[in-house]
Write a structure and sequence with these properties.
InterPro entries: NGN-like_dom, NGN_dom_sf
Shape: elongated
Distance between the termini: 25 Å
Helix content: 10-25%
Number of domains: 2
Strand order of the largest sheet: 10-9-13-12-11
Radius of gyration: 18 Å
Number of helices: 4
Keywords: Transcription
Pfam family, one: NusG
CATH superfamily of the largest domain: NusG, N-terminal domain
CATH architecture of the largest domain: 2-Layer Sandwich
Protein name: NusG-like N-terminal domain-containing protein
Organism: Sellimonas intestinalis
Strand content: 35-45%
Structural class: alpha+beta
Length: 190
């Protein structure tokens, strides 16, 4: 099954963003799954990314939340979802334009996020993960080749720290210009 088979198709559902307390993303997704019927909240998830830390001369791969404090929900009924969310503890807010209209994740933003995400199963749960991109650099440290997901966004790179194994891309998301840190690995590196 392709990763995109798991993600929503346009026209079926829309993605919305819930802001919550940083560090409580998984707790909120669990609460949403247990409290809300699937007819109102088809899926709720947060996005993780692989990171690379150097520990005692070796690279250690870990996962951390890509957008701290943000949980994504898929629904066709945002107004009903909004009223149901009032019953959910520790909820901050469903992103809106400030005038009671709930703002879906724009189609181009959703496509961007879908292009980054790999959906895996771990301990019976779906994990939405941005994996490290494989890259090749020249003698000056310029990226001359990149694998997915970075390959589509080389033109958006605003900063790179190859030695620390990351690049930063800039993209408009959720109504603001945001920077997104993506981890990289050199071609042939584990």
């Amino acid at each position: 099954m392709s990763n995109l088979d798991i993600l929503p198709r346009r026209g079926e559902v829309m993605w919305y963003v819930i802001q919550t307390t940083t560090g409580r993303e998984e707790e909120l997704t669990d609460v949403l799954k247990s409290m809300l019927p699937q007819t109102i909240c088809e899926k709720s998830f947060f996005i993780r990314r692989e990171t690379c830390w150097r520990l005692k001369g070796k690279h250690k791969i870990q996962q951390e939340v890509l957008f701290p404090g943000y949980v994504f929900v898929q629904t066709q009924a945002p107004e009903t979802l909004f009223y149901q969310l009032k019953k959910v503890p520790k909820l901050s807010k469903l992103l809106s334009d400030g005038e009671e209209e709930f703002l879906p994740v724009r189609e181009d933003e959703q496509e961007f996020l879908e292009s980054l995400i790999t959906v895996e199963e771990k301990d019976g749960k779906e994990v939405y993960l941005v994996k490290r991109s494989e890259i090749q650099v020249d003698e000056e440290g310029n990226i001359v080749w990149a694998g997915t997901p970075l390959s589509r966004y080389i033109g958006n790179v605003v900063r790179k720290r190859i030695r620390k194994r990351y690049v930063v891309i800039e993209k408009e998301l959720f109504g603001k210009k945001r920077t997104v840190l993506l981890s990289v690995r050199l071609k042939g590196e584990e």
